Amino acid sequence: MADETLDLLDTRATLRPSGGEETFGEQALTALRAMGDRSSGLVLGETLGKGGMGLVRVGEQRSVGRAVAIKTLKNSNHSDQAALELLREGWVTGHLEHPNIVPVYDVGTDASGQPFLVLKRIDGLVWTALIREPETVHERFGARSALEWHLDVLLEVCDAVRFAHDRGVVHRDLKPDNVMVGQFGEVYVLDWGIAASLEPDPTGRLPRKAGLCGSPAYMAPEMFELTAPSPSMDIYLLGGLLHEILYGEAPHRAHTLDEARALSSRPVRADHDTEPELAALCARALDPDPAKRPASATALARELRDVLEHRESQRLARRAAECASAAADTDDSVVRRRHFAEARFGWQQALERWPENADAQAGITAMVRDMARWELANGHVQAAAALLDEHPDLEANTANAIRDAVAKLAEERARLDALARDQDEVAGIRTRMFLAGVFAFAFIFFPLVMWTQQDWLLTQPPLLVTSTWTGVVLVMTVGLLYWARDSMGRSAVNRAFARLLFVVPLSQLAISLSSLWTGDTLLELLRHQFMMWAAVCAGAGAAVDARIAPSAIAYMVAWVMAGATPELGLPMMAAADLVLAVNLFWMWGPNLVRVVHQS
Is the pTM of this model over 0.70? Predict the structure, then answer.
């Protein structure tokens, strides 16, 4: 297309710099032609496409038997200037060996001295078509999101541009028409025909021409002036690619060069219908002031990757919100906790990718709060406390409610533990069994001794005999219980046993004193004691341990037999006391054996 045309019908077409070629380039062209015809190893095929000055054909490089693309000049454009421009495209591209830049296999001239480029043949589509047809992106490349797929393509373009800048080359004509996507998603930046070197090249192969060049629909404001090439120009052009991805059109919707120049100098404002981060980045990259654009292609790519991370974070947050909603819709604790765990994991992943994700932060905070309240409402205090441990910044009212519930639970557990200890038969078992053995011996041995002296005892006042016996028992009881006070106070069983040891002599004393009014004989008083013992054992069985019932029965039997044969009252007492001793050892003996074994 003519360079000086001011009334452009297609501002997407490329303007090429004119005039003032360095002699170094002409010398390089002359030297290449002196090498002779290098086209004999090529087979030309059908035309793939045409550009402003040249055309591209399918071909075969016979030396290696591979399909290639061969770029030559149009028959109508065989000037030395056009030849030099085509060769410089090959020289620049050959200088930039990068996965996202089309490899140049050979550069040469044919028999007529016209140049050609042998390039890698790419089976794919021009990026422009893919931007306009998102369905093709989904179907051909299986993209989940067409926008993200295009942003990935732009990242690869940025990588190619970063490499070129590092090698001292500026592209100056970045646009979707100059990007090809292969059938497997490979990305290639094409058409380095107006690329410029940032430093002079003494070989003449890398041009450093200033001047009006580029595609007006994309050009930076400074590109409309006769300014030297700079990397910031490519940054603006990368912003134009992002603009076309987001809005489906070039940044300058112009019909003339003057319109394009005017539009390039207007700040691009963020579009509220577009994702704010992307719109803001696009606006900065297209800022008329080069100093306000991203500092480099690397910086622009870094911000793009951040945006992609943020989008993935938002996607994870949305999935987590769906799980949280499912958790709130069920009362099944297992299902609810599973959905809760899935939601929390999703939000945590979202925050790992983007710690400033406000949606994820608010979502996990609200969900943990609601879950903690639900656990509390359903009596799951430990589960709520675990949530508070994992999320100490939980909302204050909920956190305080959990702490109160935990404190109450601790108090209840302490009460139950104390109750369990109080009801523990093992506590103080050795002391209890020792006392039981002492009293068993006394209540079995002394009645038998008294039976041997029964004739003499019957001549004594009944109150004197029974009160003496009771006094001895009471003194022994007080002394032994004082000695064992710590152990006998450790459990309800021990305390009940201690009370029983007090009740028995006191009851016996009361029975003895009753003889002052009833005039009962010694044997009759002994018989009354059988009934008292039966009543005590029966009460203990009802209030403490029903296993003592056999002793109550034994005392009732002794009471009946003593009524039939009063002279056998003392042996009956010893026998009934023996049953009580055996009964107690049967009740508590196994625990004593375990304690002794464990120790």
Answer: no
